[in-house]
Write a structure and sequence with these properties.
Blueprint: H1 2-36, H2 40-44, H3 46-56, E1 63-68, H4 76-91, E2 96-101, H5 109-117, E3 123-126, H6 151-160, H7 162-173, E4 177-192, E5 206-209, H8 213-222, E6 225-228, H9 234-240, E7 246-249, H10 250-255, E8 264-267, E9 272-280, H11 281-285, H12 289-323, E10 330-333, H13 336-354, H14 365-379
Parallel strand pairs: 1-2, 1-3, 5-6, 8-10
Antiparallel strand pairs: 3-9, 4-7, 4-8, 4-9
Helix pairs in contact: 1-3, 4-12, 6-14, 7-14, 8-13
The structure holds ligand 6CS.
Length: about 375
């Protein structure tokens, strides 16, 4: 009996000592986490991200965030959502699960925007073109020959612009959409069966556009008509000739097979496709400071990551189109002179847009002017 009691006592002491050590270590981690979680290093690299996550993970409540995208698995927007999910999982030690949704799972692009507006989803990658009616100033990305032709310069403007990250953000927030970042999915190209080389080639063509009065005005200036359809219907529309032409970055023209139902692709450099990482404003404002900071720093870190990813996918896309012998595509790269012809038609539309001469579009000319000078600073033009 006495022996049993001694053993029991030793076991009890051991358990108490172990518990004390575990609590002591845990407490130390927590303290470090609070300090380190706010340092620059933690937000900068993957290694330091995971160090930070171990330290701060215990502070996050278990929850799931839905992340809607307008593209399929493997495409730029979807891999963004996957990478974001991975980083959040690491940083919160699995407490927060981000679930990416591919295009179509929750409706069309316009339905998806409505979900964010109504608070039916937490995060989304959104193309500003689909909310051109609600937030007219977001149409600015579809002006032709306005942003720098070089995607890297455009990305620099998108990341640092006050006109976009403060002023335009406030306009989206009136609709419960908070754009936390703008980034490019690559240089836009035209596909058609005529091989577009000059503005007059657009005469009589029906161009597919997103829901944006400005896009209509722009193609109208070239002499084309337009039709607003979801990209989910675009392959069939091109195949049947319901529309004659479309614009997209190379990776998307390849992965959505548009080139298979078009004869020619024009490298026009008329603008860069812009996507926004958005959150539902009311949801985001209901998060605690630590959760908001987690989202903000992850979005910020991902600007360079997604730039490299789209560059890789676009390079692979154009090469695959060039090398596809089953579906040969004529590739036309516009010369400087040809681009000058397009600019001569497109630039007056900039002024019409800025001066509110485009129907259904109430444009903030101060935002336009501020962005224009930010662009000039980056491009040096
Ligand atoms: O053309 C579109 O509408 C689609 N294009 C891209 C590059 N992403 C999604 C978007 O809906």
């Amino acid at each position: 009996m006495i022996i049993f009691n001694k053993k029991y006592l030793i076991m009890l002491l051991s358990i108490l000592t172990l518990s004390f050590l575990l609590v002591a270590c845990g407490g130390g981690d927590e303290e470090e986490g609070t300090d380190e979680g706010t340092t620059e290093e933690d937000t900068g690299t993957e290694d330091s991200d995971s160090e930070g996550s171990e330290d701060t993970a215990a502070d996050f409540e278990e929850q799931e965030w839905r992340f809607i995208t307008e593209e399929y698995q493997g495409e730029v927007q979807y891999v963004y959502a996957e990478e974001f999910a991975k980083r959040i999982d690491e940083k919160t030690d699995g407490a927060i699960t981000v679930t990416p949704y591919e295009f179509g799972a929750l409706g069309s692009e316009e339905d998806q925007a409505q979900l964010i507006i109504q608070g039916g989803a937490e995060l989304a990658i959104m193309s500003p073109g689909f909310t051109g009616g609600q937030v007219p100033d977001g149409q600015i990305f579809s002006l032709h020959y306005f942003f720098p032709a070089d995607p890297a310069e455009t990305q620099e403007v998108l990341t640092n612009s006050e006109a976009l990250n403060t002023d335009l953000r406030a306009k989206y927030e009136e609709h419960n959409i908070s754009p936390l970042a703008y980034w490019t999915e690559g240089s836009m190209m035209w596909t058609s069966n005529v091989g577009i080389e000059s503005p007059s080639d657009w005469e009589g063509l029906n161009q597919r556009v997103q829901a944006s009065p400005l896009m209509q005005q722009t193609y109208d200036a070239y002499g084309a008509t337009v039709q607003n359809i979801s990209w989910g219907e675009l392959y069939t529309a091109l195949e049947r000739g319901t529309v004659d032409a479309q614009e997209n970055p190379a990776f998307f023209i390849y992965s959505a097979d548009f080139y298979q139902v078009q004869d020619a692709l024009t490298i026009s450099n008329h603008n860069n496709y812009v996507a926004m990482t958005t959150v539902s404003t009311s949801w985001y404002e209901g998060l605690n400071e630590q959760e908001q900071q987690l989202i903000d720093e992850t979005v910020e870190e991902m600007q360079d990551w997604i730039f490299e990813e789209q560059e890789r996918q676009n390079q692979e896309g154009i090469e695959a189109i060039e090398n596809d012998e089953e579906y040969p595509t004529e590739i036309i790269e516009l010369t400087e002179d040809q681009i000058a012809e397009f600019k001569a038609v497109a630039e007056p539309v900039h002024e019409q847009y800025r001066n509110n001469e485009i129907t259904e579009s109430e444009i903030d000319s101060d935002l336009y002017d501020k962005l224009e000078s930010e662009i000039e600073e980056v491009s040096g033009e």
